[in-house]
Amino acid sequence: MKNTTPASVWRNPVHFLAFGFGSGAAPKAPGTFGTLAAVPLYLLLEPLSATVYALMLLVTFAVGIYLCGKTSEDMGVHDHGGIVWDEFVGYWITMFMAPAGWLWIVIGFVLFRFFDIVKPWPIGWADKRVSGGLGIMLDDVLAGIMAWACLQVGYYGWLMTVQ
Question: Which residues, including other chains, have CB under 8 Å from residue 22's CB and lie 6 or more apart?
Fold first, then answer.
């Protein structure tokens, strides 16, 4: 399915943010492009303390409920494929307290995209049953939490084998 981007994305700051600074306007795989756009921003966030990073996650989640809900409402389409602010936050959750290095950034990316696309329980349940801005955000937050858990277990499992 081709992603059609409304002109309002380029004029309305709320829509522009919800579309991940325009990354969600990609004609194919906008969620993947949105997650890719979250990576450079993660590099800016990576040096933050765990406390400040966690606060940033809470703020971007709350802001995302508004951004995604308002944009979805304005467009008259629940969870338009181009709305990717939720992918930003989901990826940033995946990378919370992640080990440093590009290998872990890529592994986090792959894990997050896997859970966001496959949507195992409870992600799929939330995606189908929770509406509005919260619904748009929640499935990606859950995908981020599941990807985070796998990343952490993978890292600490790997660490134990090399020691």
Answer: 9, 10, 16
